[in-house]
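re: ur question from earlier - yeah i can do the single chain one, its not a big deal. heres the input i used so u can compare w yours
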Amino acid sequence: MTWTQLPLGPIQTNAYILNNSKGDALIFDPGGDADTLLQWLQDKQITPLAILLTHAHFDHIGAVDAVRDAYSIPVYLHKNEENWLEDPELNRSTAFLGRTKVTARPAEKILHGEQSLQIGSFSCNVLETPGHSPGSVSFYFENEGIVFSGDALFASSIGRTDLPGGNHQQLLESIHSKLMDLPEETIVACGHGPTTTILREMDSNPFLNAL
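and the output i got, formated as tokens:
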């Protein structure tokens, strides 16, 4: 398996593509610039099997419908945010973008709690990591040694919690109980900025070491 980070959309949110040697792939958080993403997939001869959303803020969903329609694939989203895709107030595009409203059709696959997912040859564990938003999840691929954490954990930082549905203490608890329990060498594929590792954040993240 290989993975690629592509910053997309109005605030350069990291989309990730995890693909196998056959060219099958999963897409995480396609935040915008649909034409760029679709052209990249075509150039690399990669065929996505599903879109997995860590959460449904506007900057993570801008290219969802375009990619979903191009490949006739399902979208996965936690139940606590199942209404956010259609609602620009809930996904915060109204607040941040004004007249430019970001929406998408409802997700085909609703995640109810923590579970294991098997999509084609891809296998992962869904970890509930709320705090940045009520339906935030992280997708942990044990065999690949990587977790797609969305906006829960960043390199030397954590997700903001001042948006509706955010909760600072809940986010810290999510990070400590779910992400910090992963193997230290696990790569953290963050929603913004560079990737990091569990060990690096365990040792140097000021938000986590202040406790």
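Helices lie at 34-44, 64-71, 93-97, 168-179, 198-204. not sure if urs matches, ping me
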